Amino acid sequence: QVRLQESGPGLVKPSQTLSLTCTVSGASITTNYYSWVRQSPGKGLEWIGYIDKSGSTFYSPSLKSRTSISRDASKNQVLLYLSSLTPEDTAVYYCAYDPNPYHFGIWGQGTQVTVSS
């Protein structure tokens, strides 16, 4: 059974860089697709990007300039970095897994991130 667990700081300041970790169990991060998705208060889900089995990354055009997704195979973790934070980046951030790109078959529980001074 594949399980995903997001972790990171709950509160970050504007202009800082957010760093989140998705720890994966039950599957290797070198197979399938691992995505990051977020949901801001009162808004729908927003896809941030994914990393595929080869380690290639694809990002939402609206966030591409501030986003980086990478992986640590030794720890079976997928990492998200989002720079130049503003309060509009306040959201619950989710890690998701699927055999297909742009699909999200299995989700982590999510982690709340608040951007505030």
Radius of gyration: 13 Å
Number of distinct beta strands: 11
Tell me the span between the first and last alpha carbons: 40 Å
Low-confidence sequence ranges: none
What does this structure look like?
The protein has 117 residues and is mainly β. The model has no long low-confidence stretch (mean pLDDT 95). Strands 2, 4, 5, 6, 9, 10 and 11 form a 7-stranded mixed beta sheet that branches. It is globular and about 40 Å long. The protein contains no helices and 11 strands. Strand 7 and strand 8 (77-82) form a beta hairpin.
What distinguishing features does this structure have?
mainly beta; seven-stranded mixed beta sheet; 117 residues; 50% strand; four-stranded antiparallel beta sheet; globular
Summarize the structure.
The chain is mostly beta strands. 0% of the residues lie in helices and 50% in strands.
Q: Secondary structure elements and their pairing?
A:
Blueprint: E1 3-7, E2 11-12, E3 18-25, E4 33-39, E5 45-51, E6 57-59, E7 67-72, E8 77-82, E9 91-98, E10 106-107, E11 111-115
Parallel strand pairs: 2-11
Antiparallel strand pairs: 1-3, 3-8, 4-5, 4-9, 5-6, 7-8, 9-10, 9-11
